[in-house]
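hey so i finally got around to running the thing on that chain from the lab meeting. sorry it took forever, my laptop kept dying and i had to restart like 3 times. anyway pasting the input first so we r on the same page abt which one it is
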Amino acid sequence: MRTATAWPSPLRHLGPNWYGAVMGTAIVASAGATLPRIPGLRTGLTVVWALSAVMLAGVVTARVAHWVHHRDQARAHLLDPGVAPYYGCFPMALLSVGGATLSVGRDVLGEHIAVVVDAVLFSAGTAIGLTVTATILYLMLVRHRLEPADASPAWVLTVIPPMVASAVGPALVPYLPAGQPREALLLGCYAMFGLSLLATLTLLPLIFGRLMLHGLLPLALTPAVFIVLGPLGQSTTAVGQLADVAHTAVGHSYTRALSAFAVVYGVPVMGFALLWLALSVLLAVRALRRGMPFSMSWWAFTFPIGTCVTATAGLARHTGLDAFQWLAVGLFTLLVLLWVVTWSGTLRGLISGALLADPAAAQRA
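ok and heres what got predicted. didnt touch it at all, straight out
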C-alpha cells in the first residue's frame, strides 16, 4: 500500500509559489484590456484569459492533493520563512483570474456570468487574502526565526493580497444596488488599499537595507526583486480604478477629490516604480550573465510588470497624457515577451520534471 507521502510523488514539492504562474498569466489579459484597441489583440487576450482559468483550476487541484497526501510538507512550508510568504499568491491568483474574467472573459461568457464569476472569486480571494496576511505576519513574528539578512522581497507577497483586492473590487461596484452596498464596497477597497500600503511601507526599508548591507540575493532568487513593483503598480492601479467608479457610490465632492488623489498619489509612486524597475532589470541582466538558472521565481518578472501596465494606463485616463499611454504600451510589450519566455521555460521544466524535483537535492547537486 502506498503511504500518504509517496503519492503522488511529483506533487510533494509543489509549493504555493506555483500560483505565481496563474497570476502572471491572468495579468497579461487584464493589462492588455486597458490598452487602446488593436486588431487581433482582444482575441489574443481572450485566449490568455482562458489559459489562466485552466491553470487556476489545475494548480488548485494539485495543491489540494498536496495538502491531502503531503500534509507534513505543507505544514513545513508554513513554518519555512522562505516559503510561507508565497501563500499570498493563492488569493492573488483567485483575484487576478476574477478580474480578467470581467474585463476580458465577458466576451465569451456574457456580462452576467462574468460578473457572477468575478464576484465569487473576488469574495473568496479577499477573505483568503486577509486571512493569509494576518496569519503569515503572525507566523513571522512568533514562529519564524528571522535575522536582518533574511529579509527578502518575497515578504511583500504577504501583504499584497488586500491591495490586489482593492484594485479588482471597483469593477464590481456599479453592479451592486445603489446606496449603502456600493459605498461599502468602495470604502472597503480603500481600507484594504491603506492596510496593504502601510504594511508594505514597513517592509520596504528592511528589504532595501538587506540588499544594501548584506549583499544581493542568490542568483536563482534574483527575479524576486521585481516583486517590489507589485504594491507600487497595484496601488496606483487601485486608486485609479476606485476614482473611475466613485461617482456611482459617493457624492460629487468626494468624486473630484478621489480623482485628484489618483493623480497626486499615482505619479510619484510610478516614478519610484520606474526607478525600481531599472534597478531590477540591471540586477537580472547581471544574474543572467553569471548563469542564473531557470526556476519558478522567473514568474516574478510578469505580475509586477503587469501592475505597472494597468497603473500607467490608469494615469493616462486621468491625466490625458499620451506619454503615459505609450509607456503602458511599452511595458505591456515587455510583459508579453517575459511571459512567453517564462511560460516556455515552465513547460520545459514540467516535461523534464526539473521543476517538481526536491529543491534541496537540486541545490546539493
